[in-house]
Amino acid sequence: MPLQNRVDPFGELIAKPARGLFMGNRGGRIHTDEQTLTSRRWASRQWICCVLDFKGRQREVWGRYYTELFFLDEPTALAAGHRPCFECRRKDAEHFAALFGGKGRRASAPAMDKVLHAERLDGKAKRTHRMPFGELPDGAFVSIDGEPYAVRGKRLLQWMPKRYDRSIARRRGTADVLTPLSIVRVLSRGYAPRWHSSAD
């Protein structure tokens, strides 16, 4: 039985066997010794997205320390409100922080975490916002009839736990956006997230 450690674009933690391209955590441990989730869904405001392999480190998933989570790809992690890790993804994290701050100002990790925590949650629920479809950058996620779709050029790609599935034309009008507003701005300023191969 897979652990409930796969993150979907709504930020929900689901039990699926596929692991995806990235892992991460939400600032600490939110699982029990029996490898089930506690009632919490984060330990701190530090929600990060990490590489799967770093300096040959071997970890026991859901062991003594933090609760490892897994993402299909980086757009999925960003939609859920995770940012690049400054330890294992230093170059990406520095670029992300520079774009987050804007106008030549690099944002600090604590400052980003404070902003993102307010933007990704409405109480314990996912916070969404509205934007015109035409203004959304590649890598942003929207919800259509309760299903997550990623913006990719002129198309919208339906997210599934193992891959992107069907593709539809980018719509007109206003979108229900899952990706936090500050991350949408980072994407608009040129941050290029790493996609799952099924998005090509």
Q: Could you write a compact summary of the structure shown?
A:
The chain is 20% helix and 25% strand.
List keywords for this structure.
200 residues; alpha+beta; six-stranded antiparallel beta sheet
Shape: globular
Please report the number of helical segments: 4
The largest beta-sheet arranges its strands as 9-14-10-11-12-13
What string gives the helices and strands in order?
A: EEEEEHEHHEEEEEEEEH
Count of DSSP strands? 14
Report the major sheet: 6 strands, antiparallel
- Work out the strand percent: 25-35%
Poorly predicted tracts of residues: none
What's the assembly state of these chains? single chain
Mean pLDDT: 95
* Structure classification: alpha+beta
Radius of gyration: 16 Å
Distance between the termini: 31 Å
Describe the 3D structure.
The structure is a single chain. The chain is α+β, with helices and mostly antiparallel strands and about 200 residues long. It is built from four helices and 14 strands. A hairpin with a 4-residue loop joins strand 12 and strand 13. The radius of gyration is 16 Å and the shape is globular. The two termini are about 30 Å apart.
Question: Strands, helices and their partners?
Answer:
Layout lengths: L5 E2 L5 E2 L7 E4 L22 E4 L17 E3 L2 H7 L2 E2 L5 H12 L7 H12 E2 L2 E2 L2 E4 L8 E4 L2 E6 L2 E5 L4 E6 L4 E4 L3 H8 L12
Parallel strand pairs: 4-6
Antiparallel strand pairs: 1-2, 3-4, 3-5, 7-8, 9-14, 10-11, 10-14, 11-12, 12-13
